[in-house]
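quick one before i forget lol
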Amino acid sequence: MKNHKELTEYLKHYFGFDTFKGDQEAIINNLLAGHDTFVLMPTGGGKSLCYQLPALIMEGTAIVISPLIALMKNQVDAIRQVSADDAIAHFMNSSLNRAALDQVKSDVLAGRTKLLYVAPESLTKEENADFLRQVKISFYAVDEAHCISEWGHDFRPEYRRIRPVVNEIGVAPVIALTATATDKVRDDIKKNLGMPNATEFCSSFNRPNLYYEVRPKTKDVDKDIVRFIKQNPGKSGIIYCLSRRKVEELAEILRANDINARAYHAGMDTPTRTQTQDDFVMDEINVIVATIAFGMGIDKPDVRYVIHYDIPKSLEGYYQETGRAGRDGGEGKCITFFTTRDIRKLEKFMEGKPVAEQDIGRQLLQETAAYAETSVCRRRVLLHYFGEEYKPDNCQNCDNCLHPKQRIDASKDLVTMLIVVRDTKQNFKAPHIINVLTGNPTEEVLAHGHDDLDCYASGDDKDARHWNAVIRQALLSGYIYKEVENYGLIKLTPEGLKAIKSPKTFYITEDNDFDTDFVEPEGGTSVLDPELLAQLKDLRKRVAREKNIPPYVVFQDPSLEAMATMYPITIDELKNIQGVGEGKARRYGEEFCRLIARHCEYYGIDRPEDLRVRTVVNKSKNKVRIIQSVDRKVDLEVLAQSLGMEFEDFLDELDAIVDSGTKLDISYYLNDIMDPDQIEEIYEYFRESESDDIDDALDELEDEYTEDQIRLVRIQFISELGN
């Protein structure tokens, strides 16, 4: 151990700081004393220094195990700035060639290297383990330690092998560090790293400078993002998407709108990713669009906003990703776009995984949905998830606190809900409790005989959304808790048992309603010119009547709205509108362009570049292959598999192709999977309907058909009638 003066001198000498932040000094001294150490510290709190400084002070080489190759390079570059000798820090991973790896080993054996960063996969390789047995190791630092737990947001099985390999190489103190960990994850980390008696240092999760907001994910989400970035010119930002395809597509849309953006995901080659990261850190790029699944590991303090295009799979992931904003203590806006459809998609992706993994995944998703839908302080919900109590009623820095909803007295509802939890023996999750409350006779309710309980249907005068709000706010208020070990069973606290006998005043705010796939923002559509939109709809109706087809077959609403925002007056400009391909532009475009040009001339509308959010024509690399394969009558499921696509994503491709005006005849496939009468019934529905919305069709056809069947028939219908 070192005294305060000595440690402060080392801190000043190496890093130029006069004082330690938070628990840094205590953590460092604990490690210097040879004790196992567990560090829970939010992003931006100074975790790295907790192992970098002791590594520089102690004899030997510290092995830093990190899952992110990008982060390794970033941290090695940073630590080399504190020494005249570049050999002070190295990384050892799959990106190195043989000559570079030999140089690393030479520097380590010569005692010049104080920090050696390794990926868990590299650590467990036999040749590397053999090499490290020759090295005097000061300690092991396990960064991003939540990866060791299947309850963590980035579970990596290779992390489970760290302890056995450490035992083989040579035992030394272990410091585990993470920015996000619930109690369950914390226990998992210590157990799997064989450090049950580690000294724990847990900092507050509160990041007061971060602003949290959840917006409805509308069909205009791309435009919303472009407008947000234009309102924050020159600022650094990160946008997270679930799929690589969306990452590429959105980055292209941003560039088309003169935004300096680039894509970043695991499918790109290492040099491109490295260059992109370096350019972002050096402010050569303003915006990075990245996959949620791929941890970026970019240590940039002045990221001013983090946007989630898709909801993350867990609140830990969300916290970690939003934590990349405002690490310097300055402005940090965290904007998330949410629709319940995204939750359903993520649940569908889990099908086929082991049951236990599905249960964990669904519970993590439910927590994320609860955060998005709640109307109470988002900071309070987020900190409660990590076991920290946030006492103020209003944080003044989230959308719900800045625009609070009216609170309603739910004291009686609290008691009603607590009685159901008690009478079902505290052995069920929230959805089951709500089914009992609302009198919903599901298979599980009937199987347990809960329809015979006195409390069954005791809350049927309120809907499920109301009861969700009661349960969520009862959790925050400490009347109930979730038993994590058993995948979220609701249990009563002593306070909850007391409240049944002696009711207390209890207020809730109703949850936000995101229960539609695409919601229009308040005040109607977001188009620039509502009058032009009305004229375009009239023209569409006339053209449809002449052709004897539904109006949406000519152009869909999003295409008309884009026209009323961007004012295309030539066929080339029209083809740049989402949903308008070569075929539709040629077939219907002239009349629409003439109308828009007349409107602009009559009202003296100047079409400045900054008023027009450009979309990008669908240039899917799969498009030509799909068209050729359909011409050859290839089975569509086989075709989707050969393209490496989920069938739902494949149908999205088919939709985009026919909606933009290209003809696809998939009747051969339809006739294989459906009866002619079934096809005709769905055809008849689309002929008579004013909408081609799939959910509307599912409701109208009374669930007789699957969503895939309806989508396939719609594709054939649009292709035949519109193209």
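fyi The radius of gyration is 29 Å.
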